[in-house]
Amino acid sequence: MPKYVMLSTLGPDGHARLRENPERLREVNADVESMGVKVLEQFALLGPYDFLNILEAPDDGTMARVASTLASRGTLKTLTLTAIEVEDFIEIMGGGTGEG
Prior knowledge:
The protein is built from four helices and four strands. By secondary structure, it is α+β, with helices and mostly antiparallel strands.
């Protein structure tokens, strides 16, 4: 199943909600999983992004729906990237040309 990396940045409302109820993170994960996406890993970050999630979804459309739904709440902005495992990438590339 395809994997995705989602980076998210909380807005002022998102920070306030999280400060009031840190368990909200688990509730959002449950919302995401109810849309057919599995949360594989999740990290809080220091820097320009607040969270990094590694997700598994059946297809790009499902992932787009999740990203749009989360963004529509107005508490965060997301950047979603398709992640290809290195072994799969090598296979897709056909093993390369053999030239360095």
